[in-house]
Amino acid sequence: MIKKLFSYILPVNVFRKKSEWSKNLEVTWNNGELVLDSENTNYSYGSLQRILRKGLKTIGFDKVKHMEHILVLGVAGGSVIKTIVNEIGYTKRITGVEIDAEVIAMANTYFKLNEIQNLDIIIDDAFEFVLKTKNKYDLIIIDIFQDTTMPNFLFESFFTKRVGFLLNDNGILLFNTMLLNSKDNIRNEEYIKGLASLNFHSTVIPRVEQHNELIIAYKKP
User: Fold this and answer.
1) Of residues 107, 82, 102, the one with CA closest to residue 94
2) Backbone angles phi, psi at 121, to 5 degrees
3) How far is CA 143 from the centre of its chain?
4) Domain boundaries, the chain
5) pLDDT, tens digit, for every residue of 49-101?
6) DSSP for 47-114?
7) What is the pTM of this model?
8) Which of 107, 119, 134, 164 would suit a FRET pair with 69, their CA atoms being 20 to 30 Å apart?
9) Alpha-carbon distance 202 to 196, whole Å?
10) Between residues 65 and 145, the one the model is more confident about
11) In this structure, is the dihedral angle defined by the CA atoms of residues 112, 66, 206 and 148, taken in order, positive or negative?
């Protein structure tokens, strides 16, 4: 409680861990909130939770609540899952895919992710999982970063087509991206054009928390 109160003045570090995938990870009290950060960006809770909450609100909390199966690619500390369960009241099936076992261990210890009954966590590469899964989903959330870097495969047409195939008719893709330079802007513009060619209608929420852009794509039946 003392650390939490003091964090309104200065951030208070609770735990540090080096990770093969995420390099330096830190759990910190910041403005009375426990957050998970990488070396240069927020990984879970804090600004990231606000970003994805905005995307879910745009989709509509009531619509999300009545979905049957949600896939989260890139779990980290699980803040978007906490929003879905605690704020939306979602009780159906959630599958979370995370490549970094270390970050899931931290999420379980500090954010009690393992206490969510309707959540199934799979330690796997998102690309590999998307190729292997036999399930279909009503909502796919992509939130994959290695610090401030986004893997190139996320924007490749093969991966995008496969994600589209895994969505049910009228399914929704919520994709959190980071824009740091003009190349990133062009990358996102090309990605959205690719979605249109795959029979998606897309909307963009630009400059969320300064550097993030949310792409919400609705699959047409």
Assistant:
1) 82
2) -95, 130
3) 3
4) 54-219
5) 899 999 999 999 999 999 999 999 999 999 999 999 999 999 999 999 999 99
6) HHHHHHHHHHHHH-HHHHHT-SEEEEE--TT-HHHHIIIIIS---SEEEEEES-HHHHHHHHHHH-GG
7) 0.91
8) 107
9) 7
10) 65
11) positive
